[in-house]
Amino acid sequence: MNNSLFIEPNTLKNKINKPNIKILDATFFLPDSGLNAEEEYQKEHIPNSVFFDVNKIADPKNPLPHMIPSKDLFSDMMQNLGLNNEDEIIIYDNSPLLSSARAWFLLRYFGHKNILILNGGLKNWKKSGGETTVKKTMISKGNFVSKTEKKDLVVNLEEMISISKNNSKVILDARSYKRFIGEAKEPRPGLQSGHIPNSKSLPSSELLTNDGFLKSIEELDKFFSNNDIDTSEDIIATCGSGVSACVISVALYCLGKENIPIYDGSWTEWATSGQKIQTGN
């Protein structure tokens, strides 16, 4: 595992009370799961953690789900979570999707460097004897300012149309295979399933173990080569709405491909904007 990205529960236990350590719970569930991430956080969370709401840390003017907010708005939102520029930020989740990857992606996009993901999430924290609490974390406003916007980490609809049409880059779709081929329903009501022409199915669930850990470097390497994906090519990750695409980004980051962009509008934008929808393999 790329040690620069994941932190083990015991390491976090040893520094959980340090003032420059900030812990974010970035749990997110699909709209048809029947679960509410904020309610789950309120039921139990890691002490001192604050809830990073993937649905709300977004552009409020965009009708698409959780699109990346502006630099200033993101700065405000992070200050309200108590984050400072000098903080070491540790992200975890209690989601089968490794939704921590979305928070990691956004913080990187806006130039924060010191970010770690808790290996195995809340489940592994508890298994390792970590305590949880229902206590509300007291937040004092932080001084976080977005340093930059790494625009090369995001692809928009116009670019996607051209890439798909010209088959100029490898498009990897993190949704389930059944949604990709158009057999399973999308979790968002009224949205047709299928896929972007010239894209390839790579379900993010295949990158995770049954316990929610990202697979080892060796397993990931093997998985990409077994699926005929040349990781040295230009790759773009997409999914339903820009969350599980970030898991592909994290996996490739661990394999040394540090700047894999995501198509932020993902399938929700593609399928609702009159683009060509492919079904079957």
Percent range for β-strand residues:
5-15%
Number of strands: 10
Mean pLDDT level: 96
| Low-confidence region ranges | none
Reading the helices and strands in chain order gives EHEHEHEHEHEHEHEHEHEH
Quaternary structure: single chain
Instruction: State the end-to-end distance.
Output: 32 Å
Largest sheet: 5 strands, parallel
What structural category do the secondary elements indicate?
alpha/beta
In the sheet with the most strands, the strands line up as 1-5-4-2-3
Shape: globular
The helix fraction, in percent, is 25-40%
Structure overview:
The structure is a single chain. This protein is α/β, with parallel strands linked by helices and 281 residues long. Helices cover 29% and strands 12% of the residues. It has ten helices and ten strands. The chain has helices spanning 9-15, 37-43, 71-80, 100-109, 121-127, 157-166, 177-180, 217-226, 245-254, 266-272, and strands at 6-7, 21-25, 49-51, 88-92, 115-118, 154-155, 170-173, 199-201, 235-238, 262-263. The chain has a five-stranded parallel β-sheet with strand order 1-5-4-2-3, sandwiched between helices. It has a three-stranded parallel β-sheet with strand order 8-7-9. Helix 7 (177-180) links the parallel strand 7 and strand 8 (199-201). The chain is globular, with a radius of gyration of 18 Å. The mean pLDDT is 96.
List keywords for this structure.
281 residues; alpha/beta; 10 helices; 10 strands; 29% helix
Topology:
Layout: E1 6-7, H1 9-15, E2 21-25, H2 37-43, E3 49-51, H3 71-80, E4 88-92, H4 100-109, E5 115-118, H5 121-127, E6 154-155, H6 157-166, E7 170-173, H7 177-180, E8 199-201, H8 217-226, E9 235-238, H9 245-254, E10 262-263, H10 266-272
Parallel strand pairs: 1-5, 2-3, 2-4, 4-5, 6-10, 7-8, 7-9
Helix pairs in contact: 4-9
